[in-house]
Task: structure prediction
Amino acid sequence: MSKDYKYVGKRKDIATVRDIRAYELNAVWLGVPLLLLMENAGKGIADYIKYRMNGDVQDKEVYIFVGKGGNGGDGLVAARHLASMGAKVFIILVYRENEIEHPDTRFNLNIIKHMDRSVKLLRLDAINEPLKSDILIDAMLGVGVKGKPREPIASAIKLFNESEGFKVAVDVPTGVDPDTGHVAGMAVKADVTITFHKIKPGLIRAREYVGEVIVVDIGIPPEAEIYVGPGDVKVKVPRKPIDAHKGVGGRIVVIGGSELYTGAPALAAMASLRTGADLAFVLAPQRVANIIASYSPNIISYGFKGEYFTEEVVDEVLGYVEKLRPHSVVIGPGLGLNESTKTFTLSVLKDLVQRNDIKGIVVDADALKHLAGANIDLRGKVVLTPHRRELSILLNLDVEEELQDRIQKCILASKTYNAITLLKGHIDVICYGEDYRLNKTGTPAMSVGGTGDVLSGIIASLIARGVNLYEAAQIAAYINGRAGELATNTLGERITATDLLDYVPKVFIEAENMH
Result:
């Protein structure tokens, strides 16, 4: 058989378990059911084993240890395919049938139960001595390991390791932490680990348990990684703990507003609250602060003298930032383009990026124009949110509508300013250095004013809740666009930015309900 076995070594890069989970759910969003991914995984296991057995598994004895989650389902699919290839297949159920949790695993077990001539089902507690077979497959936990193995997994690991045969682990050897490689107590020792889509970091660090690593493609579309999706929302945004108290969800400060623009900072503040922040403060010129206070009792506003921000109030504003102890800051909505406001903006920004207690800063709207050409190292602590014209100002370069040019210019801006850059458009581009992702949610109806302010508030809230800046920018772009889609589905093209606020929580609910 050719050594160019098509499933070997096709994906060399590494992904954590949460990244893989996000990609799987994004694949579902794109129309690929998890059941199909499980089918591809199981078929990939069987095909590799056939390859490893020199193309013939006829009459080979195969024992598959099956757990109650998705990993067990992969093993059950492999059992069906190996049986069809002529192998003598025995499935050892580590748990009782009624304990099997994963719906797709139950689906495949029901198929196996009808295969009563080619596959034999055994109970773990009915086996009293080590096995002697040609092939042993560990499909017990995979990436689902949590701490020291408990019964019945501990007994199953012991039996597996003491048995004779060529030992194959599915995705990750049971007992090995897929991200760290740590083994708490005991773990399966495999000759080969067949992992899916990408290598998990723990496989590199636990080679004595892992053996040879084979990567199998299971049909996750590249777009599930390239485009941000609901999987990113579900997997990467933490939920509030059961003992949450005021402030745990994050404190946000929005610095913005001027005599002409009162709504922008209020929209950013309200969006942060709708995204899960506990407290949203707005620092604005006095008249603007009074108006914002009338918009919603949920926003806490502080006013400063003057019709717009000037360098005279820099120290006072920074004093309030010190007092309010925000986790993240938005600066820019409604600031205006007064020259003295530019001096104010740059002075405040220089101070904010030096503060270790602030997780991240979102620079939006007029503050982007103030920043253009300024010699400030943003230290990777800032998310810039320009549209195409604003990016042209930041770079002093033309930015074309064509996507590839927008990607290249987004990367250039990120490198130039040492910041995450979210280039807004019909397809959003989110960059950090050379890395980038795309977002395609949104509708033409979102051309209405204020949707960018909502986006800034969402980013700030996600940062405050513990999401890293790059992922916060990605996820916020998806949430903002999806909220616009849901609003448009109900209201048509006659939506406003405030309509988006009502749909932001629904985007979270939609993502959380994915399986």
Notes: Residues 1-11 have pLDDT under 50 and may be disordered. The chain has 19 helices and 16 strands. The longest helix spans residues 469-491.
